[in-house]
Amino acid sequence: MSKNWPVLLFKKSVLKQNKFKALTAYLGKTEGLTCLDIGSDNGVISLLLRQRGGYWKSADLDEKTVECIRSLVKDDVFQIDGRHTPFKDNEFDRVLIVDFLEHIHTDQEFIDELYRIMKSGGELIINVPHVKNSFLRKFRLFMGQTDEKHGHVRPGYTVQNLQNLLGKNFTWIEHRTYSKFFSEFVDTLMTWTMGILKKGENASQKGMVIEAKDFSKNKKMFRIYTLIYPFLWFLGKCDGLLFRSSGYMLIARAKINKEEVSRNEKSI
Asked: What is the pTM of this model?
């Protein structure tokens, strides 16, 4: 089995490619910066982020997802809860939250913890599901793809929800939604297929995670998926036709409101 199977799957996932493009657009250049990514599922996002430069650490909720990330990036991967992290005060220039806040009840406490570990002038990028009471959501619920199955404690966030969460500790810079009906419909079908293949397995705190064993056990299915990928890619591109429709994912960028720590204070 190829050690690069997560990257191979990433290159065949319309949704994950859309996500990485949105994240890196808001992240900007990372050379010389100390960065943290939180919640990057099977680790491929962590791996690709580290290839862009800078010093990175990664963290996630569940032991299974932490092991998946560690298998790809090796070092500086931590298991955290929804309240505390093992990091120092004023450690990070950039923090990315990638599909994490919807998995914890203590989102406000966690944002307060990020304020502690971020440097003055640091930026926070948050990627979460965008709340939409749409036909597709109703279809997903009908298919059994409930919030609970995905490990979500809430269906997502609106812009106002996120702004309230960040409060006065952060200055809102920009936001947008992405991943519209066609991309999400493709992902819905893939999630349904993987649910059948992994039937009987307990979902993690982060929902259903594709692991190396899944790739090994279902090589034939993944080969078939590779053959039909051009059609799925075209279907995802049809999102561009939905000019007036908002996306199912919400990404936001904010800057921390924090005074710079002096050298004397750092040495105490």
From this structure: 0.83
